[in-house]
Amino acid sequence: MAAESQITSRIPLFDGMNRIPGGIMLIPLILGSVVGTFFPGFLELGNFTSALFRDSALPLIGILIFATGMQITLKTSGPVLATTGTILLTKSIIPAGLVVLLGQFVGIEGILGVSILALIVTMDNSNGGLWLAFTGRYGDARDRGAYMASAINDGPFFSMLFLGAAGLADIPYTLLLAAIIPLVIGIIVGNLDEKWTEIMRPIPNMVIPFFAFALGTGIDLGNVVTGGLSGLLVGAIATVITGTLAYFGYRWILRRGKQSGIGIASATTAGNAIATPAIIAGADPSFEPYMEVATAQVASAVLVSAVLAPLLAAWVLKRQGGIKKQNQGSGEHAQPLRAEGL
Asked: What local confidence, expressed as pLDDT, does residue 217 receive?
């Protein structure tokens, strides 16, 4: 273990990526976009090269969902479940409901160049890694245990469910079932054998860069310029809206008083969400015209929300007098930032 802690890199590629919010996914995504836009012949070489760098997204996302399920334990106390449910309600269910309600009036093309696809994907999930980092410093066991909310709302399930239920997407329910089967099997296996849970824990670090690169190869950089800039605005708006909902959930439902600002830290967009527009477009071709721009907008939202949500949460905690108490209560229970969920 001592030898491992002293490992150095000639060029710190991994550490450099992790210094950027969501970098473990965003940087490979950008590199894939460059290759797909300027060197498409490389992706047509065939065999393992094409299989890994162009066609690997969906299989690797499936593995990620399976590994995520393994981290969900059934040995959870009531307060943790209450916190998890509150975050799911305020960060996923209510925001997704608002987006599909908007879609009933404006259609799937959305407003001001932002499609309903981009809006719902940006709003209905959260960055579990940043949540663990923030609650490890300012929260307690209830908050850290609520990482389950990020494990549940990661991936395409909520977006597909709400779009399909609202009639905005023609998504067969068999596909909705197929989207959660890996998660359910992961939960079952993880709770039967904790060793498998530990074995699968490093999976996100391994698969996210590869499926991000594969997704990037389908993105035209011309659309990234336009979509990415609007994505910054979308991310900021989504952070404020979902952060406000989560704050009031902590204050009114959980009765957390001065610590209610912790909920705002959930107002992020997970790096995994960058894959969701492609998954939904694959299930319903009517979303294909919006997929590239939506993917770029979501990628930008990942960055801005990862910076803005923790800053807003810390500011509210400090303003309401919650930071000092939380710092004293965290101590040895604080946990480092994990790469999973980014």
From this structure: 84
Q: Please give the span between the terminal C-alpha atoms of the chain, in angstroms, as a whole number.
A: 26
pLDDT at 283 (0 to 100) = 84
In Å, what is the CA distance from 90 to each residue of 32, 80, 205?
34, 15, 28
| CA distances to 59, 247, 299 from 266, in Å | 28, 9, 17
Token pair listed for 157: 């399930």
Return left, alpha or beta for 270; rule: phi > 0 is left, psi -120 to 50 is alpha, else beta.
Answer: beta
- How far is it, in rounded angstroms, from Cα 288 to Cα 28? 22
Residue 273 is which amino acid?
A
DSSP annotation string for 238-258: HHHHHHHHHHHIIIIIS--GG
- If DSSP states are collapsed to H, E and C, what string results for 208-223? HHHHHHHHHCCCCHHH
CB < 8 Å & 24+ apart, contacts of 10-18: 17/209, 18/339
What whole-number distance in Å separates Cα of residue 251 and Cα of residue 235? 24
255: left (phi over 0), alpha (psi -120 to 50) or beta: left
Q: How far apart are CA 235 and CA 129, in angstroms?
A: 18
User: Distance between CA atoms of 212 and 302, rounded to whole angstroms?
Assistant: 13
Q: How far is CA 286 from CA 161, 175, 189, 298, in A?
A: 16, 16, 36, 19
pLDDT surpasses 50 at 235? yes
- The distance of Cα 320 from the centroid of its chain, to the nearest Å, equals 28
Alpha-helical runs (H) found in the chain: 2-5, 13-18, 23-38, 40-43, 47-53, 57-70, 78-88, 94-106, 116-123, 128-138, 141-145, 147-153, 157-165, 173-192, 194-200, 203-216, 221-248, 276-283, 288-320, 323-330
- Alpha-carbon torsion 24, 230, 289, 163, what sign? positive
Query: pTM score > 0.85 for this model?
Result: no
Six token digits for residue 324: 């000092």
In this prediction, residue 3 carries a pLDDT of 46
Residues recorded for the chain: 342
Rounded alpha-carbon distances, angstroms, from residue 16 to 23, 133, 134, 232, 317? 8, 18, 20, 22, 30
